[in-house]
Design brief:
Elements: H1 2-6, H2 15-23, H3 31-40, H4 43-48, E1 71-77, E2 89-95, E3 101-106, H5 112-127, E4 132-135, H6 139-146
Parallel strand pairs: 1-4
Antiparallel strand pairs: 1-2, 2-3
Length: 147
């Protein structure tokens, strides 16, 4: 693979090109996967990789909330040591206006309905229902959370 990838004739081909070149001459199990991993670990290829996407454009700043707990943001801190109650993550819920935060211990295995129940018990009880919630989870999580 070194010879096919680092050669002055090939000039660091991407994994699909390298696979096509090696496919006709060599065979081994998991060939395609190993070639992809090899190219992904190449320092030169990682540094010169061209991004084939349109520029994202200017960032759109979020508006300043008018009242406390009207807009909240959420995030998770994962990979923590397990506690006696078997919690291994922290769910952070922050008011965007006052920056007041609640830190709720949770398990990695929780599903969106469990987070929704916790949210009702810990946040809505104290501050009411917000107008907007900002979180960086996928749309599936958000949809199941709001169900």
């Amino acid at each position: 693979m070194d010879e096919a990838h680092l050669s002055k004739l090939s000039i660091h081909p991407w994994s699909s090109k390298m696979y096509q070149d090696l496919k006709s001459h060599y065979w081994w199990t998991k060939r395609k996967k190993e070639i992809a991993v090899y190219v992904a670990r190449c320092d030169t290829c990682c540094r010169v990789r061209a991004i084939h996407m349109k520029p994202a454009g200017l960032l759109q700043p979020l508006s300043v909330p008018e009242w406390k707990w009207e807009e909240v943001s959420m995030d998770f801190i994962k990979g923590l040591p397990t506690t006696r109650k078997e919690n291994n993550s922290v769910w952070v819920i922050i008011d965007r206006l006052t920056k007041l935060a609640h830190f709720i211990p949770v398990k990695n295995s929780y599903r969106p309905p469990e987070y929704a129940d916790l949210y009702l018990a810990k946040i809505v009880k104290l501050h009411g229902i917000p107008k907007t919630i900002i979180l960086d989870r996928g749309p599936q999580f958000t949809a199941h959370f709001w169900e």
